[in-house]
Amino acid sequence: MMWRQHRYKLVCSLLLLLSGLLLAFYCGDAKQSYEFDWVDVLGEGTTLLVACGWLGLIVSSRPAGRVTEWLYYGSLLLVYSYFLDLLDEFIQYPEDVRLMSWLESLPAPVGMLILTYGLIGWHREQRAINRQLRGRELFLRNHELIDPLTQLYGSEYLLAVLQREVELHQSQRQPLSLLVLDIHNFADFNRRNGIAAGDHYLSQLSELLLSQLRHSDVVCRYSGDCFVAVLPDTAAAAAQIMAQHLQQQVVQLTDEENKPDLTMAVMQVSQDSASAALQAALQMLAASKQGTEFRLQPV
Question: pTM value?
Answer without folding.
Answer: 0.52
